[in-house]
Amino acid sequence: MSSGWTRGATAISGFAYALRHAELTAQEQAEALDFIAEESLRLERLTAKLTELITASSCKAEKKPVALEHLAERLSALLPDLLGLSIQASGKAIGDADLLLSFLTNVCDNARKAHAASIQVELSPTCFRVSDDGNG
Predict the structure, then answer these.
(1) Cα angle 30-91-46, degrees, rounded to a multiple of 5
(2) Which residues, in sequence order, are CB contacts of 123 under 8 Å at separation 6+?
(3) Whole-model pTM over 0.85
(4) 67-84 pLDDT tens trace
C-alpha cells in the first residue's frame, strides 16, 4: 500500500510546485488547492489505517457506498503520467474508498513495472477488473 501513499505525496508536491512556479488561472489554482486538500486528507486517513494494521489493531475500514466514477477520477489524478491507462467505471460499490484507491494504485503501478503499454481498469458494483499487456 505504500505506492498509493507515495503517488499521493508526489501528486501533492507536483501541484504545490505548479502553484509556486507556473502561471495558472484562478480556476486552475482553485482546482490544484482542492486536489491538495483532498489528497492530504486521504493520506492522513490511509496513514492511520496502515498504522492500525501494522500495530495489529483491528483496522477500522469504513464500509460505505463508494461512487466508482469518483474512484476512477481519483485514480487518474494519481497516475497522470501512466500512458495507456484506460478506466471505465459505473455505479457504486460498498467498501473503504481510501483502501480501494490504494489497492488500484498498487495494481496499476505493478503493471507499469511489468512494462505494460496498455492497462485497462473496469470498475462495477460486483467486480473490479484490471488487465494489462505487461510481462507479469
Answers:
(1) 55
(2) 68, 71, 72, 87, 88, 89, 90, 93, 129
(3) no
(4) 999 999 999 998 888 889
